[in-house]
Amino acid sequence: MTAQTGSTSVKTQKADVLIIGAGPAGIFTALGLVKNGRGENIVLVEKGLPVEKRTCPKAKVGHCVHCQPCRITTGFSGAGAFSDGKLSLSYEVGGDLPKLIGRQYAQETIHRVDQMYLDFGADPHVEGVGNDAEIANIRRRAIKAGLKLVNCPIRHLGTEKAQLIYGRIEKALLDAGVNIIFETECREVLIEDGCCVGAMIENKDGVTRIEANKTIVAVGRRGADWLDSMCQEHGISHSAGPVDIGVRVEVRNEIMEDVNKALYEGKLVGYPDPFQNKVRTFCQNPGGFVSQENYDGGLAVVNGHSYKERKSDNTNLAILVSFNFRKPFNQPIAYAQHVGRLCNMLGAGHLLVQRFGDIRNGKRTWPEELSQSNVVPTLPDAEAGDITAAMPYRAMIEIVNFIKAMDKVVPGFASDETLLYAPELKFYSNRVDMDEKFDTSVRDLHCLGDSSGWTHGLMMASVMGLLMGERLAAEK
Question: How far is residue 165 CA from its own chain's centroid?
Fold first, then answer.
């Protein structure tokens, strides 16, 4: 069916379930429906490419070419799967979903989701288990440093292996009859009389109005800003949650050897003086590579990749400071974006990199100084400069003090040659109000994954999606 709006032709399509976003939350919503025999008339809309076409040109040309949209942050499987592909197997990691559905239920569902990943070919090996004595020593050092070690088993998919696994999932959904529409952007969710009736989507073929009985918004961190605008425009009940601002740290593998072997990913949390904000490590990549992601408006942010077979001489990890804003301020995403753009401005459009010793000495880092260090940057097009000229004072002070505390857990972590890249930003600050069934204030609208503000990372987003899909299948 085609309708005319002025001079614009708008097609109409119907669906039982419309899923916006093919990251883990959207994918597992579809899987939850399919495995319960409900694969018919599901439409899954994705802004990016199929997983088999998600190749970053930088691997060939050596520098970012600013794909629109960025192939690292968009496409089937989302941003997290394409970067490092790690599944956290404990309910203690991955956001606040356990507060919504209960810790035991969250952990039980983690086990079920993990088995599904195994069924699609994930590596059966689990990192961070069976090293009790070594982990106890790391925890002892963390306690002395005033930090908390969160011991979380990790199933590492790997950047390149994750693409194969999600490729099998993509094929399974297509074989089950799920209609996946790629290279298509959702312009607006459609709310009529307090009920969501679908969404308007647009691609090279034009604009389509998809009318759906249930609409699932699972647009990830990449779409958090868009979802916030939808909440504002349509009165979807929500609140401003925390926003994470920080840096990605890179050191030699030798420095992180004990933690890498015992835990693979050491998750440490602290509340350093003088401000006592929550500061944490995130997304540790042993033998990994620092990478660049691009968001709307040309915003470049730093991340890390971790391959199963391709390894570097370095380990990288994020150090993130959580900001919880209070009234009257309600624009945490815009605040973080502003910080990021200041960093990009100083780097002439590139990510910034600075040696920790130069930060302590109050000077910028010069390119020739990087070549004199043991730590060779794995992101060669990062611009040597001065992160402190862009990073907020509060965040910078706490990052420095946290790195000093980390040095007591991992000797050498606070070396002069330790590299800091900026900006590292996590956009999941818009928290949509919902109940344990994921019902929002708008009937027939459900918001899942990192963009909902309730999850951080692959596993919890997958858990939220599976539970949503199973619920929808049971209601039919």
Answer: 18
| pLDDT above 70: residue 108 | yes
Q: Is 139 helix (H, G, I), strand (E, B) or coil?
A: helix
Instruction: Compute the distance between CA of residue 40 and CA of residue 57 in angstroms, rounded to an integer.
Output: 36
What is the DSSP secondary structure assignment for residue 451, as one 8-state letter? G
Q: What is the residue-wise DSSP string for 41-60?
A: TEEEE-SS--GGG---THHH
Burial pattern 136-166, b for ≥16 Cβ within 10 A else e, equals eebbebbeebebebbbbbbbbbbbebbbebb
**Which H or E run includes 177?**
none
- Provide the pLDDT for residue 6: 47
Q: What does the H/E/C string look like for 247-263?
A: EEEEEECCCCHHHHHHC
pLDDT per position as a tens digit, 270-293:
999 999 999 999 999 999 999 999
CA 379 from chain center: how many Å? 19
CA 289 to chain centre: 16
Angle at 429 between CA 385 and CA 460, to 5 degrees: 105
Give the predicted TM-score (pTM) of the model.
0.91
| Peptide bond between residue 411 and the one before it cis (omega within 30 degrees of 0) | no
If phi > 0 it is left, if psi is from -120 to 50 it is alpha, else beta; for residue 244 that is beta
Residues 6 or more apart from 36 whose CB is under 8 A from it? 469, 470, 473, 474
